[in-house]
Each structure stands twice: as C-alpha cells, then as structure tokens.
Design goal:
This protein folds into four domains: 216 residues, Histidine kinase-like ATPase, C-terminal domain (Heat Shock Protein 90, 2-Layer Sandwich), CATH 3.30.565; 144 residues, Ribosomal Protein S5, domain 2, CATH 3.30.230; 94 residues, Rossmann fold, CATH 3.40.50; 127 residues, Up-down Bundle (Four Helix Bundle (Hemerythrin (Met), subunit A)), CATH 1.20.120. It contains 20 helices and 22 strands. The protein binds adenosine-5'-triphosphate (ATP). The site of adenosine-5'-triphosphate (ATP) has 19 residues, from helix 2 and helix 3.
Length: 620
C-alpha cells in the first residue's frame, strides 16, 4: 500500500487552527456541511450521467447514509455521488480556492477571539468536521474510475493520501469523535440535526440501523407548496443553495404556468456575497430540469446585474439531456430569464414602496450592481432607474429620482449631480456652493458605473442629467426661495473688471486651461475647475487615467467667483495690466483648484515658491 504525506496549503492550516481551537458552540453544523457536500456530489453525478450513463454503474438510487459505531466512537457519512480521485482530494480537501476565505482569515486575525461568530457567518464547509472529530478518514472513488483513495488527517498541518477499496462510486467520511463530542453518536441527536438543517435535501438521508430510517422529507423543497414550507426551512435551504450563512433578505417562491412552465425559489441575500465585483460577474443560480441539477454556471438564466440572486430554477420545458453549450441562445431559457427578471424587478418595486427602510438595506448592498442594469438592460432601463436610490445634498436619506424631480426648485429643469468615489470629499466640493446657497438639491454619484449609465440615459421624466462639474450647469435661472429678481442682480459683480481678469489669467495660464470665466456656482471658494459641456466629465477622466486608459487631453475651464474678496482685489489689480502678482495668483489659484479636485499639481516646487512669496507679502 502506498501512502503520501502532504501538507495543507497555508490558508487551510490557518483555517483549521481557527476551527479546531474555536469555542464555537454550534458545532452540530458540521453535519449540515457534510450532508450538503454529499448532496452536491449526487447532483453532480446525476448531471454527468445524463450524457454518460455508464458512470452510474447500475447505482442510480442516490442517497446519503449515516451510521454510528458507538464503541469505536465513529460517525460515518456516506454518499454514492461523484466521488473524488487522487488529484481531486488534493485540490478539494488540501487547498481552498473559495473566494472569501482570505477575507475570512483576515477578519479572524483582526478580531482575535471572536472567530466564534465568524465560523457562523462564513461557514467552513468540510473543515468543520474537525470541530467535533479528532481524526477524519475519507474513502472515495470517482464515478467512472476503478481506483479508490483514502484521505486521513487529524487537522493539524498535514494529511495522508493512500490506496483504498470502496464498493462503487461515492464518498465515505468517517469521523472519529472527540472524547467530549459523544452526543453526536446518539440517534436522537442526529435525527434532530438532520430535521433542523437538512430536511430540504432532495435525496434521502438514511440512518442505518436494524431497520434503516429516512430522516428527511427528501422532496425538493421548491416542488412543495409555499404553505408547506416554514420560514426556517427556507432559511436552511438558502444556506445550502447559496453557501451563505446570513438571513435571506427576500424569498421568492413561485410556480409559473403558461406557455413555458417553471418553478423558482429565489433568494436575495441579506449581505453582500464576496464575489460580487469580480470581473467575471458570475451568477450562481442553480438550474434544474425536472429536479435534476444541470448547472450553476449558466449566464443565460439571469442578467448579470441580478447576479446577487441565489436559488433554484426548475423547468420541465428544457430537455433533460441539455448540455451547457445548448443552453446558450436557448429560446426557452431566454423566456425564463425574461420572466425571472420581470418578477424580481416587480418584487423589488413592491418592497421599495411598502418597506422603505428595508429597501435601503437592499440598496446599500446591491445598488451598485443594480445600476449596471440601467446601462445594460434596455428593456428594463426605466424599471431599474425607478428602483435606484441616491444620496444627495438635501439630507442623509436616500432619494429616488421621482422624489428628486418632485422637490426641484422653481426654474430648475435639470437633475444636477456630482460624481466621484468619496462622498465626504464630494460634499466639500466648491462646485456645490452655489447650489447649496440656492437650496438646489444635487445628487452624489459615487459608483464607477454612474459615469456610464448617465450619458446613456440622458434624462428622467424629461429632465436632463447635468453634472455640476461641467460648464453647462446653469444656476442663473433658478431663484433662491423668497429671492426677487432685484436681489439676484445685486449679487453679480463688476462684469468688465472680471472679464479683464479672466483674460489676464488666460494669457498667463495658456493651454493649461481651455477658458477662464466668471461663475455663479461658487459662494465661499474663489475658484473651481469644470469640464467644457461637450468634454468628458472630470471624474470619468480621472477614473480612466487610473486604469491606464487613453483619455482625451481636454484642458479644464477655470471659473472665478466674482463675489469673492480675493477675486475682487485681483480685479482691481488687473487694471494695471498683468503684473507679477496677477501672474502668481493665476498659477496659485489654478493649482489650488487642482488640489481640491484630488489631482496632483504639475510643478510642486513652483507652487511652493509662489505660496511662500504670497504668504510673505501678506505677513510682512
Ligand atoms: N462528499 C463529497 N463528494 C465529492 N466531493 C466532495 C465531497 N465533499 C467535499 N467534496 C469536494 O470538496 C470541496 C470542498 O468542500 P468544502 O465543504 O470545503 O467547500 P464547498 O462545499 O466548496 O463550499 P462551502 O464551504 O460553502 O460548503 C467541494 O467543493 C467538493 O468539490
């Protein structure tokens, strides 16, 4: 017999250390995890056997069996699923490729003792066996292969893989229970745990004894009627199907009848899954055909912007032997996708109307993903827009576009927004000053996707979206509450003088600015930068530059606040032509505006010199 001793990947060792040393009291979940894996293994084989029935080798009666040897203190969990070969064992039980593990380990490291909660939140899958067992022996044979393998470990640093014998395909996991965990060797305890956590598993879970006993209902939960499923059972199924450990925020269970028939049991998670923003943008919805698992890797079943939805879709209208390739451009699936999208968006709309507070939780988790729908889903663009919520200058609450339009000021015909990745920095933007002073609400667009959907959508209820960091944002038509035309006029400054100063600044600054002009969007600040109306928004320019993309070399417009005392002084000084003071002021103010925008200034040394000399003049 050959044996190989191998070390766990470093992350696994860390994870195992947490698991074995944790004081986590809910140790019974180890059984849920192992049963969940066994059920997945049966699903996988059932699917593979659709195209190659020889894999079943005459054993198609899928089941999971539990048996107890009280004397030897061994609990055995066996399945006749897909099984594992030598390399699978190393890849699956010696390494972790799961997204989120790193975050889990980091959080565990940072939190010190509270790893207890973390296990509950993240789940540790197969490795949870080591919470209750001092030794775990896995004996497994992969369907279609002759050779069986054993995997043995005490969960401390390494494991041993060796030859083994096993009748038929599948996996047998033997847990040599720790001295203080003998409760899990009691029949009644196992019955209770299976009923609590694994009742929804669609294949039978049997407890071996003089007479074998089936412990679960063994009917696919989604085939039952809603009234036969408790909230607790939905939650446990969600944990199983989503590999999640939080509470579902929304559960959608319904059967659709008509030209195409299908059942869906969908969940919107209560917190963000870890892989939400990975470039693949994968969904994890499980597709079944008449209760036979087909795939959880099919892009055609739900749009990418709804990729946070978890659960199951089962339809008898797809052929059972459908291959993953056949799923592409499949008209039945396209209809299911359209139906699911409509259903989900409809339910979200209801939630948004009925439970504003609860909806905010959803939006804070998934809003940035939902906004991709505004950009990508032409058919549902308006629905997605109506579901969108924004932070604004008005208050700390989230606002919908409809609410925004409703509270627009007299004379206002545009939806004003400012974009950038940091809301706190945005709140301090000088460009906001004039809007705040007039009580005009401005939306904060803080998701990168905002830069893409806004130009595509253009308007909401015929009100154009207008970036306030672009030249075209015009405040002059909007009056302050209670302000008369006369008051408005009084605020404007000596126009000729300002024009003269603008021309002098432009002459000094040359091509580094497209234009220098007076603005009414500032009240406290002296200057700000904006993009020309036809040019790319400055935030988008910054974003693209950060990602190494080519960006058109559009120089910004420098705007001066004619009511600011510094500008007024400079207006007076400019009567004498372009003096060194005007020259320095032009450069300093441009650099200042760049700094406020979070940009680096091209010549730091020159900036420092000018600043020093300006301070000297002021102080001496
Ligand atoms: N009974 C089994 N039969 C076949 N393969 C198995 C079995 N148990 C585990 N595996 C394999 O080992 C892998 C790792 O299992 P583990 O429980 O650690 O993680 P997981 O099931 O992928 O995720 P989670 O932690 O969310 O349950 C599984 O993805 C599967 O490939």
């Amino acid at each position: 017999m050959t044996e190989e001793k191998l070390s766990f990947q470093a992350e696994v060792s860390k994870l195992l250390h947490i698991v074995t040393h944790s004081l986590y009291s809910n140790k019974e979940i180890f059984l849920r995890e192992l049963i969940s894996n066994a059920s997945d293994a049966c699903d996988k084989l059932r699917y593979e056997a659709q195209t190659d029935s020889s894999l079943l080798d005459g054993d198609s009666d899928f089941k999971i069996s539990l048996s107890l040897d009280k004397e030897a203190k061994i609990l055995t969990i066996a399945d006749n699923g897909i099984g594992m070969n030598h390399d699978d064992l190393i890849n699956n039980l010696g390494t972790i490729a799961k997204s989120g593990t790193e975050a889990f380990l980091k959080a565990a490291e940072e939190s010190g003792k509270s790893d207890v909660n973390l296990i509950g939140q993240f789940g540790v899958g197969f490795y949870s066996s080591f919470m209750v067992a001092e030794e775990v022996v896995v004996t497994t044979r992969k369907a279609g292969e002759d050779k069986a393998w054993s995997w043995t470990s005490n969960g401390e640093g390494d494991y041993v893989i060796g030859d083994a014998t096993r009748d038929g395909h599948g996996t047998t996991i033997q847990l040599k229970m720790r001295e203080d965990q003998s409760e899990f060797l009691e029949d009644h305890r196992l019955r209770h745990i299976v009923k609590t956590y694994s009742d929804h598993i669609s294949i039978p879970i049997e407890l071996k004894g003089e007479e074998d006993e089936t412990l679960n209902s063994a009917s696919a939960i989604w085939t039952r009627s809603q009234s036969d499923v408790s909230e607790e059972q939905y939650k446990e199924f969600y944990h199983h199907v989503a590999h999640a450990f939080d509470e579902p925020w929304l559960t959608l269970h319904n059967r659709v009848e008509g030209v195409i028939e299908y059942t869906n049991l969908l969940f919107i998670p209560g917190s963000r899954p870890m892989d939400l923003f990975t470039p693949e943008r994968k969904n994890h919805l499980k597709l079944y055909v008449n209760r036979v698992f087909i795939t959880d890797d099919c892009d055609e079943v739900i749009p990418q912007y709804l990729r946070f939805v978890r659960g199951v879709v089962d339809s008898g209208d797809l052929p059972l032997n459908v291959s993953r390739e056949m799923l592409q451009h499949n008209p039945v699936l396209a209809k299911i996708k359209a139906g699911l999208t409509k259903k989900i968006l409809g339910e979200l709309k209801k939630k948004a109307e009925k439970d504003t507070e609860g909806y905010v939780t959803f939006w804070e988790n998934f809003g940035a993903v939902m906004k991709e729908g505004i950009y990508e889903d032409f058919a549902h663009k308006q629905d997605c827009l109506a579901l969108a919520r924004f932070k604004s200058t008005q208050d700390d609450d989230w606002v919908s576009l409809a609410q925004y339009v409703e509270r627009m000021k007299e004379g206002q015909d545009q939806i004003f927004y400012i974009s950038g990745d940091d809301i706190d920095a945005l709140k301090k933007s000088p460009q906001l000053e004039g809007f705040k002073a007039k009580g005009v609400e401005v939306l904060f667009m803080t998701d990168p996707i905002d830069e893409f959907w806004i130009p595509g959508v253009g308007a909401f209820e015929e009100k154009q979206f207008q970036s306030i960091t672009k030249g075209g944002a015009d405040l002059s038509k909007i009056k302050k509450d209670g302000e008369s035309d006369e008051d408005a006029k009084e605020e404007s400054a000596d126009k000729d003088g300002v024009d003269r100063l603008c021309a002098a600044f432009k002459a000094v600054l040359g091509d580094s600015v497209q234009e220098v002009r007076s603005t009414d969007r500032l009240t406290d600040s002296a200057v700000c930068l904006v993009a020309g109306e036809g040019a790319m928004d400055r935030n988008l320019q910054r974003m693209l530059k950060q990602h190494g993309q080519a960006v058109p070399d559009d120089a910004p417009i420098l705007e001066l606040n004619p009511t600011h005392s510094l500008i007024k002084k400079l207006v007076d000084l400019s009567a004498d032509g372009t003096t060194p003071t005007i020259d320095d002021a032009a450069h300093l103010l441009l650099d200042q505006a760049r700094i406020i925008e979070g940009e680096t200034i091209p010549d730091m040394t020159a900036f420092a010199h000018r600043m020093t000399s300006a301070m000297e003049k002021g102080l001496v």
